[in-house]
Amino acid sequence: MDDVEEDYMSDSFINQDIRPGMPMLRRVKETFKKEEKVKEANQKSRQKSIKEQEKEQREMFLNVALGNENKGFAMLQKMGYKSGQPLGKSGKGIVEPIPLNITTGRSGLGHEELQKRKAEEKLENYRKKMHVKKQVEKQTTELFKMRLKTKQEQLQVKRDLEKSQKACQQLDTQKGLEVPKEDWYWLKTKTEEDKDEEEEEEEEEEDELNESKKLISLTTYLREEYLYCIWCGTAYQDQEDLSSNCPGTTYTDHE
């Protein structure tokens, strides 16, 4: 009986009844594996683009050193040049060849430099914009802080003025005075507040400016007449005692 190798890819063999659990021939497995590898290799080779193939071929040829068959290299050797030596009579020239820059795109010469310069300009403009933005934010923050500080100072002046009016009314009453030295030295009653409400609304800005002057005038009156400081909350014995122990004539002096 002739020993003829079976064709494992024939219909007669493939259509055999291979049931689960029955051993499969080793050679059949190897055949299937080889076919899978061939298919994968073919698929990978098809996936490579023409540019990639050209690049691989170019790199392969560039990596090959020049031989005697090259006329230019042969002329250098006749003049005493040896492979690996620097060029030039003094031996300070280049050793490696000038690199070859291949442009694979369809853009003209200088296009890459132009794109690079545009990118740098764009980055510089972005940095300038960010710098300006930070400066504006800083100025806005400082302006907000200044306004907030001014508002707080105005509220503090208003509180100190009311405190001074209460103290002045109490001290004047104890002294036997029935009316204040100035109308605004004492706190107004509810009736007087309602009467002057419309007038205060019309002259709100002017009142805010006058409150500081009123506070200075009233605290000066309290210090001279009663030796009293509203921030210390103390009536001193004499002028020398007031000058020595009171920190000053303003709210900030007492902080």
UniProtKB/TrEMBL annotation:
**What does the sequence similarity comment in the record state about its family?**
Belongs to the GPATCH11 family.
**Do you know which InterPro entries this protein is assigned to?**
DUF4187 (IPR025239), G_patch_dom (IPR000467), GPATCH11 (IPR039249)
- List the lineage, top down: Eukaryota, Metazoa, Chordata, Craniata, Vertebrata
Please indicate which superkingdom the organism of origin belongs to. Eukaryota
Question: Where along the chain is composition biased (Acidic residues)?
Answer: 194-209
Ranges for domain G-patch: 68-114
> Which residues fall in a coiled-coil region?
109-136
Q: Which keywords describe this protein according to UniProt?
A: Coiled coil
Q: Which PROSITE patterns match?
A: G_PATCH
Q: Which residues cross the membrane?
A: none
According to the record, the residues making up region (Disordered) are: 1-21, 34-55, 189-212
- Does the UniProt entry include the keyword Coiled coil? yes
GO CC, sorted alphabetically, is: kinetochore
Which named protein is this? G patch domain-containing protein 11
Q: Spell out the Pfam families in the cross-references.
A: DUF4187 (PF13821), G-patch (PF01585)
Q: Which GO terms describe its molecular function?
A: nucleic acid binding
